[in-house]
Structures are given as structure tokens and as C-alpha cells.
Fold this protein.
Amino acid sequence: MLFVKMHGLGNDYVYVDCTKENLENPSKIARRISDRHFGVGSDGLILIKPSDTADFTMEMYNADGSRGEMCGNGIRCVGKFVYDQGLTEKTELQVETLAGIKELKLFVEQGQVQSVRVDMGAPVLRAADVPVISQKEQVIDEPIHAGNAVYRMTCVSMGNPHAVVFVENVMDLNLEELGPQFEGNPCFPNRVNTEFIQVLDENRIRMRVWERGSGETFACGTGACAAVVASVLNGFTKDRVTVELLGGCLEIEWDRKRDTVFMTGPASTVFHGEIDVTKLEE
């Protein structure tokens, strides 16, 4: 299997061009190839496939083999992959995902994509659609018990479910302990990605993220979008915000007139490789 290792702000995936080859049992391959000791090492596996309704399809698997609806950092790398690998000459693309069709604008320098702007669509706030179990129509600044503490969360879906929690200092948190307590909380029927947010000022926030199926990652694009929506809803920031993640910064804008969220950030290629998939499946 030919593959390309790529990352968006350190949120890394193994990418496979499935316009040219077919993979059987991608869930199992995702688990084995994501292992950072015995595999390639990644937060998951992303397959690039043909689409009947868009330019390409993005099929995403988390490191534990579970299927993901969307990945903001991953889809930026899909845009870079298809342009840099000569699968398209377009700089404006549509990519089909389980969370719907996303529109990408590619920023090219010296023949290669350096950054990508993605129209991530409208944030979903209705509790039943996030989904989060609640007696309220929307979950904004609501209490949740995790361990021996009570936190306040705002729930948003950006194609996948997010619980945004505001804290005094994100670097003081033990996410290895705290993250699973949110991810597996019974109020989230599909599990949840949890963003822990420190508000720096009305134009800047700092974020750490625990992603369902992958653990703490260096960045999460959909999570950054959800975090900005939650920050605005709670009155902490304006509509355009720089999000500081462990892997770098994303620029997020919630255009409330159009009710859509734009995400702009880099996409990087690490290396090209080839691996014997039959050995991965042993």
C-alpha cells in the first residue's frame, strides 16, 4: 500500500489514494497503522475516494478503528494531497464527508498547497442533533460531573459532537485522566470530543483537545470551530478568533449572517511510504 503521512498542526494521519487502489478492512488497518511503536504512527487513517456528488470523498478512521464523520485538519490535508499529487488542478474544491459536502479554497505557493480555507458549515446547537442527552433544547454553560469535579460545558456539533469546557489554565489539566471521563459520559450517546478552553482575550483562545477514539491530539479543526462558537455564545469572544493549539494556530470565523464557520490553517506533508498491508493484518 502506497501512503502519504501528513499533518495539520500536528494532527497527523496516514493518507491513501483510493482512486487508484482498494483497501479491505480499513478499520483494522487504521488501528495497526496508527500505532506509534509498531505501525507508521498517526491519529488515524484517511482514504481519498471518488465521489458522485463532489470532487472527492474523504473517508476517515480514528486510531481505534472507529469511523469519524469529519476532521478539520484532515480535510485541509486532503485538499493539499489531491492538488500536490496531481489529482486535480482546481484550487476550489468540494469534498464529500459523512458530515456533508465541504467547500475548500486552496492557497498555492510555488506549485504546492501551503494552507487551506474550509467552509465548515453551520454549527448544530440542538441537543438531540449534537447529540447530547438533555432536557434543554440547547446545552450552553450547563453543568457536567467528571471525576470529583463539576465543569460547565457548551455542546456543539460541527459534523461530529463536541463538548466545550472553559477553564482557568488548560496547561494545568491532566487530560489522560480527565478526557476519558468526558468521552465515555453516558450523556453522549456517540461519545464526544472535548475541548478545554482558556480565554486569552476577545480575539484569542488557547485550547487542548481530547478526541474520541484518538486521545489528546495536537490540534482539532472541528473542535476549534466548536470552541469559537461556544466562546461567542458565552460572550467571551468576538466572531473572528485565533485558536492556539499545541501544534500551532488556526484562524476561525463564525459568519453569523450566513450561519457558517470558516477555518483557515496550514497543511503539511511529512513523507511518502509503502507498507505491506498483509503484515499489518496479522
Notes: The mean pLDDT is 96. The CA atoms of residues 197 and 207 lie 5 Å apart. Helices lie at 26-34, 72-84, 175-183, 221-233, 277-280.
